[in-house]
Design a protein that fits this description.
about 200 residues, 9 strands, globular, Dna Ligase, domain 1, 2 domains, five-stranded antiparallel sheet, alpha+beta, Glycoprotein, Type 4 Pilin
Amino acid sequence: MGQYSIEEGRALTEAARSAIELYLTSPRFSAKMITVQLRQFEREHGVFVTIEHYPTKTVRGCIGFARGIRPLPELLVQSAIAAASEDPRFVPVSHLEFEHMVVEVDILSKPVRLSGTADKIRKAIKPGRDGLIIEYGYRSGTILPSAAVDNGWAAEEFLENLCASAGLERHTWHNAGAKLYRFTVEAFRESSPRGKVEKVA
């Protein structure tokens, strides 16, 4: 993609942290408290926010939107709060716990549909570069590019785990009714809690 500078990435990552902190500590929190500071971000992109324990990099929450269905600032704030409070894999994050976590913001490119034979789809995917989306019936799932790297997945393992993330059988990506998409990301991450923001992808 290459559309966002490190300064823009820093602003988005700091905004995600601020949104979580204010949500956890202020009974008068409103999303507008954050989005009003991000008026320069007019482009519409999908976005994911991940929070991890530091320094173990243990994921504590990861929620987002695969497509830019609303302005980026709105999706960023909603994703940040949901990562801290609505990830079904975890109990909500407490304010004290959040003090020991780092925030990562992934901005997604427009998804590109994958089609053709199973072999063609496998060859079109580059783990580490691509993230994946599956839509099948009323179920859908998204996995960011970093997951394939962290878990050492080859293309087929990536596809199988994508299906599992959507609550589908691992072979569902073969089915004619399955819609598959790939995307890339620009990722910005704190080097430590409240630390320097770096571009990591």
